[in-house]
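Researcher: Here's the sequence for the chain we discussed earlier.
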Amino acid sequence: MSPFNSSKEGFLVIKKQLHCIKATLFILLSVFCSSVISEPTSNAVTLTYVRPYAVGDVVFIGANMPAGSFCSYPFFSINISTNSGKAMYAAALVALSQKKYVYIEINECGNGEAGSNLVQSIYVLY
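Model: Thanks. This is the structure I predict for it:
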């Protein structure tokens, strides 16, 4: 005798278990392969300033790195019009005030103008 009332019920249980396995594999691959799929990321650096403006949705940050070591210059911008941008702004403030090291991740290097290196993520280290 089957522990299920019908073959459909057994199929649904197996389908749910496969979904859980897929989700677990996705999380594991995301954690262990993040360095493989991430965008250009700086070495561990400290921030030299965080500069919000009264007008606009941009906060500028400066990093303690030699010019040309990561993109063409060490000045970056954060778009704070989104919740994730506000979270990156908060992380930058914590890193600056606590003198923590960070990794700065960007989509691509900008065109050389101030703020054209748009930050994708800030990873506060220690």
